Amino acid sequence: MTKLLRRKELQTLLQQAEDEKFKLKRELTAADLTLLGIGATVGVGIFVLPGVMAAKVAGPAIVVSFLLSAIACIFAGLCYAEFASLAPVSGSAYTYSYVALGEIFAWIIGWDLLLEFGVSMSAVAVGWSGYVTNLLSDLGIHLPKILTNDIAHGGIINLPAIFIIALLGWILTRGIRESSNFSNIMVFIKLAVIILFIVLAAPHIKPQNWTPFAPYGWKNVITAAGLVFFAYGGFDAVSTASEETKNPQRNIPIGLVASLTIVATLYAIVCLVLTGVVNYKKLDNSAPVAYVLSLIGVKWGSVLVAIGAVVGITTVMMVMLLGTTRILFSLSRDGLLPPVFSKVHKTRRTPYVATIAVTIIGILLSGFLPIMTLAELCNIGALFAFMLTSISVLVLRIKRPDIKRPFKVPAVYVIAPLAALISFGLIVSLPKIAIIRFIVWLAIGLIIYFSYGIKHSVVQNSRNNS
């Protein structure tokens, strides 16, 4: 049991990050990280999920669902910010759990994060495919349904989703600065498109469309909060880039808090506009923002929004792909997975093998699974990560009050437990099948850990040799 709870020292983390064998380039600023956070979160959550969730689960009260999720995210975000300023290295919640709770918890959360980021990327790719297909259809180019949908929706393979993940995987192997510049440009386009939608659609709001406000009951509103949570999940990907950030103790907290605030505001406004312009029952559409503009007769606006959605959703996939590769890299560097995944390119200083591996997995998931199955899996992964990170902050405050913390969670003994409790509450509100699939995923992870990870762990072996 002592072995399982062995913790990694902060000094070891910092030394490991400077090891030339694993060293990544520090290129990102606070502005880059804010845009990275917005890029990771504003995508399917704003262009796809509000319509589906309003039509099937929450009605106009979907705005409340998004705000409930935002509260949990802001609390968890503060905990991430404290840890990121304390341990500015790759790994996000995995690294934080390693320092505070011990190796077995770190492995569980690392394995969980692979699920969260990897499945999020694939879910977003399916949403991207829907927008591309609709956009091309508006332009007179009709792709065969059999090649743009999963089996559950009358197809065989989703080729557009496969194409975009393969392209982004290639871009990420080129370098972190190149990837960031590409992402930043697309984020600005995405924000311009969202503002355009609000300006065009808001004058057509009919308040009677907000009645009944919660037609499926308030219990479903809470369930929807758990289901749409993955729309915010990308913000924690900001902390996976800690090892590639200039002055991370300052810039990571700024990037986390600023991006969350902007995103929560945008989600609430768009939900209100969507359900105010069109009756919620008509929003069961894979491209609801473009659909609403089309209904009110703004044809050119619909095409422009579709283009912006395609561009914007691309940034979400890129950040999710970045996050997955950095988690895989960290697990491998610590010996918990084979060393091949922590190989760094000699000149570009990117974990290129991990990037290729994650790209292949994303292609398989997005090419064959429906978006709702993917969304359920990544929601529970994100919530579990938030819960353990919040607990880890509290544990380390109690065990190591002496450590210098560049950023501190205010009222930590209130906010950290609340973040953990809200996350747990949203987990139990999810469909049972999602919880069962998650348990199966964790069981597979534990088999890998006890058959490989515990024997090759760098922390375990360094203790044995000392």
TrEMBL record:
<keyword id="KW-0812">Transmembrane</keyword>
<keyword id="KW-0472">Membrane</keyword>
<feature type="transmembrane region" description="Helical">
    <location>
        <begin position="61"/>
        <end position="83"/>
    </location>
</feature>
<feature type="transmembrane region" description="Helical">
    <location>
        <begin position="33"/>
        <end position="55"/>
    </location>
</feature>
<dbReference type="Pfam" id="PF13520">
    <property type="entry name" value="AA_permease_2"/>
</dbReference>
<feature type="transmembrane region" description="Helical">
    <location>
        <begin position="300"/>
        <end position="323"/>
    </location>
</feature>
<feature type="transmembrane region" description="Helical">
    <location>
        <begin position="352"/>
        <end position="374"/>
    </location>
</feature>
<keyword id="KW-0813">Transport</keyword>
<feature type="transmembrane region" description="Helical">
    <location>
        <begin position="151"/>
        <end position="173"/>
    </location>
</feature>
<feature type="transmembrane region" description="Helical">
    <location>
        <begin position="434"/>
        <end position="454"/>
    </location>
</feature>
<feature type="transmembrane region" description="Helical">
    <location>
        <begin position="104"/>
        <end position="131"/>
    </location>
</feature>
<feature type="transmembrane region" description="Helical">
    <location>
        <begin position="256"/>
        <end position="280"/>
    </location>
</feature>
<dbReference type="GO" id="GO:0015171">
    <property type="term" value="F:amino acid transmembrane transporter activity"/>
</dbReference>
<feature type="transmembrane region" description="Helical">
    <location>
        <begin position="410"/>
        <end position="428"/>
    </location>
</feature>
<feature type="coiled-coil region">
    <location>
        <begin position="7"/>
        <end position="34"/>
    </location>
</feature>
<feature type="transmembrane region" description="Helical">
    <location>
        <begin position="217"/>
        <end position="235"/>
    </location>
</feature>
<dbReference type="InterPro" id="IPR002293">
    <property type="entry name" value="AA/rel_permease1"/>
</dbReference>
<keyword id="KW-0175">Coiled coil</keyword>
<protein>
    <submittedName>
        <fullName>Amino acid permease-associated region</fullName>
    </submittedName>
</protein>
<dbReference type="GO" id="GO:0016020">
    <property type="term" value="C:membrane"/>
</dbReference>
<feature type="transmembrane region" description="Helical">
    <location>
        <begin position="380"/>
        <end position="398"/>
    </location>
</feature>
<feature type="transmembrane region" description="Helical">
    <location>
        <begin position="185"/>
        <end position="205"/>
    </location>
</feature>
<keyword id="KW-1133">Transmembrane helix</keyword>
